[in-house]
Hints:
The chain contains nine helices and 14 strands. By secondary structure, it is α/β, with parallel strands linked by helices. The strands form three sheets. Strands 5-2-1-6-7-8 form a six-stranded parallel β-sheet, with helices on both faces. The protein has a six-stranded mixed β-sheet with strand order 10-9-11-14-13-12. Strands 3-4 form a two-stranded antiparallel ribbon. Helix 3 packs parallel to helix 6. The radius of gyration is 21 Å and the shape is globular.
Amino acid sequence: MAGTGRPPRVVRPTLAVVGATGAVGTVMLQILSQRADIWGEIRLIASPRSAGRKLAVRGEEVEVVALTEEAFDGVDIAMFDVPDEVAARWAPVAAARGAVVVDNSGAFRMDAEVPLVVPEVNPHAVRMRPRGIVANPNCTTLSMIVALGALHAEFGLRELVVSSYQAVSGAGHAGVTTLREQLSLVAGTELGTSPGDVRRAVGDNTGPFPEPVALNVVPWAGSLREDGWSSEEMKVRDESRKILGLPNLPVAVTCVRVPVITTHSLTVHARFEDEVTVDRAREILATAPGVVLFDNPAAGEFPTPADVVGTDPTWVGRVRRALDDPTALELFVCGDNLRKGAALNTAQIAELVAAELRGMA
């Protein structure tokens, strides 16, 4: 099995963080300092222009090294937080040098020889990695899949309809910078009275978005795919099918960008094999690992991005049975797209691999 061919050398594995200076990489370093310290050396790798920078990891200053083949020598597990094209080139290199790669990009998610893993849902899949690579799902999928996985295990999912409300940090630093600049441009102006007034205030400063996102919602995330679907929408469909082991699951998705810095939200209509009850669904969600049930509308209690940002679990509220279908549930879910939606799930996968390697020592 690629990536695990040599005997493990140490009980405490050497970890590499590739893309350590990026938006997700920055959160990853915070998470590594907050979780159980199972690692030996932590090596920080980034583009040559970032080499030489020093970043804090576990209370120590660690110097960033440039991304080269030699940077992976002696590495047991390498977490990649880089663009797709960088991961596509360098993840196989790291695996060939003996590391197990946990990749947060979209480069390998739908590769049949690369498992797509959510530790609360399908942890067993991490052991079957013939290419030495394990993929991390997209942040939108991760914002809902832990809750859905728990419900699927009990009721058997058979159809999914989702609308996402995605934070601008899903588009990286550029998305966050764009929203902040747009908010400064529209502040104090008369808006909302005539067509195009927000666009006129923002001008050409739309950044990575096709329309202004300040004081607006944009029904588009990603790039254009066949028949008018976006890449983000296809990811939610394809990744949900793969993680849950339901290759023919009917999924309909609309992805929307909203003026929120961090934390994705989704409305979920989930249809199951048999009749469901709200009481049983709430019991499942209240006890599921990685899920917080926050659901008391009478008291104004339901998750919002302002509540959830900076936290690790998937938060679930507005749990209802569908008005016209006793086999369907309606949910509202929120998840921090930089934590569980990216860095945290990557770290959890790496911890699963580390436990496996320690067991082989």
